[in-house]
Amino acid sequence: MDTFAALAHGMAIAVQPMNLLYALIGVFLGTAVGVLPGIGPALTVALLLPVTYKLDPGGSLIMFAGIYYGGMYGGSTTAILINTPGESASMATALEGNKMAKAGRGGPALATAAIGSFVAGTIATIGLAFLSPYLVDIAVRFGPEDYFALMCVAFITVSATFGDSPVRGLTSLFIGLTLGLIGIDKLTGQARLAFGVPELLDGVEVTTLAVGLFAVGEALYVASRRHHSEEKIEAIKGSLWMTREDWKRSWKPWLRGTAFGFPIGALPAGGAEIPTFLSYSTERRLTKYPEQFGKGAIEGVAGPEAANNASAAGTLVPLLTLGLPTSATAAMMLAGFQQYGLNPGPLLFAERPDLVWGLIASLFIANTMLLVLNLPLVGLWVKLLAIPTPWLYAGILVFATMGTIAAKPSVVELSMLAGFGVLGFLMRRFDFPIAPVVVGLILGPIAESQLRRALAISLGDPMTLLQSPISATLLAVALIALVAPFALKGLGRFKANED
Amino acid sequence: MTTDSAGPETSASRGVDKAAIVIAGLLAAVALVLVYDANQIPATTMYGMGPQVMPVVIAIGLGILALANLIDAVRGHLPARESADPVAVLLILAGLALLIAIIGFGGGFILATTALFVTTSAAFGRRAFVTDLIIGAVLTTVIYLAFDRLLTLSLPAGPLERLL
Q: Residue A95's Cα: distance from chain center in Å?
């Protein structure tokens, strides 16, 4: 089978000493940044993107794989020890994990999260490796109108279907789409929304937007409501290791969490919230110890953590095969590809198999490194959590602005960063989800050029969108996804602010 | 987008939400800017859609969303907000403004980011100005050396950087 050969080739690339070093640095940096409270995986990737500027694409993507998984792992550590989930996908983990930490069982909670993440990540990465070639075969048959329809599905599901309020989700999406218009139109060379400012002609930089919204916005928001609550770090008391009983109660939730996480993540629906909450409620129903739920049940950490990691690997399926980011983190990964002029999709599999399979193989390696490194190093990560909040956020802002200063040290770019920070603050304050803005900025221009290409081929006949069966089906799905939340108000119980 | 929303308003869950009406107004204003800008683009003759079509489509979407947000605001359907501390927000924004000014006038990376460090730290309630100044200066100098010299990112140099 082809996949085995390709994967073996990727492994051979990934285990080169230099690439192993990149993966190790990625895992280390990803965990260190991801463990800081208030920093989710998307921001981790955005903050560390400038660090990889000077590497070759292969090494950079391998470091990225490490940052991605490291950021996720760091996020769960924070959720367990101080009950501030960096993203809504860690909310279930925080629910039970923090209770376990309070009861002096922080060690086993961290261990089941780490091992569960490893198991789920490994199974899901195998899924990614074997599913991707099939999807690539389907994707090469996609015409521009089909791509446009697929992006419509992603737009709607990311913003409207699973959020708190479809109106506010769509508003966020349209803010992102508007930002995506800024700059030179690639097909005709006309400037749009540049208002004569030369720096705007290149368009809005994805990293500037993401760092502004996530880092600056978060710092402003936390500072503005500092007087409301104080965070408390739980010390890890007792043994780090899981008992026989813990293992027995953990392995089934790990596998069930993976079974929820990977397929839902692989669908272009976006978000790890749904699988983690599905996993949490399933474990709650199946457990032999229902009385422990809400007070620190290990199943409630093992299942959702596995689901979270599996869906993170799942979102790489549409990202790598179709170039379709369905979460803020995946959007940042796409930005990482784009900084080298690489566009994920079926062509990348054909043209740069070394890159794609090297990345997939590195995911396995990063996952293993995390397991080996992080349990012994947990004491170090806990020390990072103990940095006083003023210095922590001051340091985050210094680091966040450094990325922009290094990429484009202009007054306009920095003002945009500050402006996006204010936007991020207001969106948090008024409860607008952040992820759709990033997805809108990055996918909007791609969707527009696919639509215009389709219409150019059909000589301007819009019926081409409905004549292709793939496109017609996908547009119907998008329409249903748009109408459903208004029709079924109960669906809006999943909160979708991945930041 | 506006400064008034950083103010300490608490009662928003019931009745008309004024800040939310401002949001709806801003969305409508952005929609108008999009239409205005699209009209400035010279028409090109080609099959399919030109560059001016998508801005108008997005403007229509924004217009509808402005209306939907307005309805939510009038009905008071928005989640309640906790009070916010405007001083903290303004301190961080002042730090960012200082950073931009120092970079703009060639003051260099260390000076600019140290200013941001001190103001942010103050926004989070620290009052030990001199200590924070020293910590900020040391931290940003280390970052400068690590990223500019070791990783060869080019960070802007000012008087302090030339001494290193």
A: 21
Q: In terms of domains, do B96 and B66 share one? A: no
Tell which of B75, B99, B124 closes a domain.
B75
Whether residues B71 and B90 fall in one domain: no
Q: Residue B67 sits in which domain range?
A: 12-75
> Among A36-40, A348-352, B60-64, B69-73, which is the least confidently predicted range?
A36-40
Look up residue A213 and give its DSSP letter. I
Average pLDDT value for residue range B48-56: 84
A residues 36-65 lying closer than 8 A (beta carbon) to B: 50-51, 53-54
Q: At what angle do helices A91-102 and A299-322 cross, to 10 degrees?
A: 150
pLDDT tens digits, one per residue of A253-265: 999 999 988 988 8
Count of positions (residues) in chain A? 499
Sign of CA dihedral A268, A274, A276, A279: negative
| Domain ranges within chain A, ordered by starting residue | 3-498
- Judged by CB atoms closer than 8 Å, whether chains meet at B152 and A54 is answered as yes
What does the alpha-carbon distance between residue B124 and residue A415 come to, in Å, rounded to a whole number? 22
Interface test with B, best of A179, A193, A218 (most B CBs within 10 A): A193
pLDDT in tens, A408-457: 888 999 999 999 999 999 998 888 888 889 889 988 998 998 898 898 88
Both B68 and B90 in one domain: the answer is no
Compute how many other C-beta atoms are within 10 angstroms of the C-beta atom of residue A488: 9
Do residues A406 and B154 lie in contact, with contact meaning Cβ atoms separated by under 8 Å? Answer: yes
What proportion of chain A, given as a percentage, has pLDDT over 90? 15
Q: Comparing C-alpha atoms, which of A66, A41, A40 is closest to residue A52? A: A66
Report pTM.
0.86
Residue B154, min C-alpha distance to chain A (Å)? 6
What integer pLDDT is reported at residue A499 of this predicted model?
35
Residue A385 has pLDDT above 80, yes or no: no
Q: How confident is the model at residue A212, as a pLDDT?
A: 92
Measured distance CA(A183)–CA(A191) in Å, rounded: 5
CB contact under 8 A, B113 and A402: yes
Interface test with A, best of B81, B91, B105, B113 (most A CBs within 10 A): B113
Tell me whether 0.90 is exceeded by the ipTM: no
Residue A392 and residue A402: Cα distance in Å, rounded?
Answer: 15
Strand partners, A402: none
Average pLDDT of chain A is 84
Query: Quick one: tokens of A373?
Result: 């490194």
Residue A404 corresponds to which tokens in the numbers above?
Answer: 């922009």
Q: Could you say which of B75, B106, B124 is where a domain stops?
A: B75
